[in-house]
Amino acid sequence: MQMQINRKRLEESMAALGRIGETPAGGLSRLALTDEDRRGRDLLVEWMRAAGLTVAIDRMGNIFGERPGREGLPPVMMGSHADSVPTGGKYDGQLGVLCALEAIRTLNDNKTATRHPVVMAIFTNEEGARFQPAMIGSGVMAGQIALEDAYNARDRDGLRLGDELERIGYLGPELCIPRPIRAYLELHIEQGPILEEQHLSVGVVEGIVAISWSKLVLTGVQDHAGPTPMRMRKDALVAAADIVRGVREIPRKIGGDMVATVGRLDVAPNIPNAIPGKVTMSVDLRAPDEHHVTRAVGLLDRLVKDTARAEGVRYDTSTSRSSTLSSGRPRTRGPAIAVCSRERGTTPSTWRPSVPPA
Q1: pTM for the complete prediction?
Q2: How many CB atoms lie within 10 A of CB 285?
Q3: 98 vs 90: CA distance, rounded Å
């Protein structure tokens, strides 16, 4: 039997959840563990319970809603995240969460029993916009991040993740440990331009790239902008600017599909008439080849050392491997390609590879 979701219901759910943290431009600002995140979680839990799901919350605030199956088998899990970046879109994260809910609602509408339980999952701080690294909730559950390390992560205001989790009421009682699952499925809006560039409406993820996040602190000498000669300056911002330019060159040196980004600069004292004495900056390195990321981290270390020496500033670096390369499993990827191909009226053999042309 072929079932159809209720598109109008899905659109209404997207609109209702999207109003929580809505920006004037129509986007979304719902950072992890803020009051907006709490309100979004509350609404989702309300909908999950209304759909007959048994809701559980673990010690990282990850939320799971289970629809029972006929047999005592591992569940099929679907979901995503509900937090956003400060200027995010309304489809990022919450599309996967609400499509999972809509799939379950459709099963209910058709009174369809499944052999395996079906679980809807909402993971904490997947974006990493407020607390670093990204994917903390799922990282702890997968055993890749220690629970106490996650609790001790702090935002730009010094607020501790564990305290904020408790403050919004989502420090749950369940252990945050690996769960037995049959398969995991996630629908996600494409965050890049490749599908649009290739005039494709849907794609199937082949894997998740390896990611390394680094925090750099450059310390120079803060001086007045007027009387300090250029030859005597130890400008932390000049060093940071050279590093930004150098980071952009790292993917060109390594090749492949490596990408590198400097997305954050905190400058002190950050006033017009003072030479910057301190800069804190981030470096994000990603590639589908873990060896490329390892090599990139080495090139970054050399770049920072050489730049600091040239400008006469001190430096401190800390690097966290946010995630390692993860390949999609054929048993779920194959059926997904088949279903998407059927909907597009094509055959799986016509699907193009994910790597864009050079």
Answers
A1: 0.82
A2: 29
A3: 11
Domain ranges of the chain: 7-189, 208-323
Quote the tokens at residue 303.
């770049």
Average pLDDT for runs of 10 along the chain of length 358 = 91 97 94 98 98 98 98 96 93 95 98 98 96 92 95 96 98 96 91 84 81 96 96 98 98 96 97 98 94 95 98 94 62 66 58 40
d(CA 139, CA 147): 9
| In CATH, 7-189 is 3.40.630.10 | yes
The one-letter amino acid at 239: A
CA pseudo-torsion sign 336, 340, 346, 351: negative
CA angle 108, 112, 118 (to 5 degrees): 75
Domains 7-189 and 208-323 share a fold: no
Could you give the count of Cα atoms lying within 13 Å of 80 in the half-sphere of its Cβ? 19
Is 3.60.15.10 the CATH classification of the domain at 208-323? no
